[in-house]
Amino acid sequence: MEKNDQPAGEARRRVAENLWRLRKERGLSQEAMAELADFHRTYVSQLERCITNISLDGLERLARALNVDVPDLLASLEAAEETADRHRQ
Question: Where along the chain do its domains lie?
Fold first, then answer.
């Protein structure tokens, strides 16, 4: 089986960045995040580092655990930061 050496796609990068940001904003460790979403801690780490893809069902589990909508996990970094700024005001 060949290893896929292609760079991560835009959607995967967005999920990774938003997962990391939202997890940090909530003061969650990777282990705590994994428990909330019923994932293994190493899987959360892999997602944040763009090592692995996530299924739509997995996105829903992350969104529920973080109390956000699935589109929030796919938002561009700029849009995500604007939303976070609005919530802080």
Answer: 10-71
CA atoms within 13 A on the CB side of 80: 20
- Under 8 Å between Cβ of 26 and 88: no
Among residues 51, 30, 48, 50, the alpha carbon closest in space to that of 39 is found at: 30
- Which residues of the chain, if any, have pLDDT below 50? 1-3
Q: Coil, strand or helix: which one is 63?
A: helix
Q: Which residues contact 54 (CB under 8 A, 6 or more apart)?
A: 12, 15, 47, 62
pTM as predicted: 0.80
Pair 25, 69: CB distance under 8 Å? no
CATH of domain 10-71: 1.10.260.40
Q: Please give the span between the terminal C-alpha atoms of the chain, in angstroms, as a whole number.
A: 51
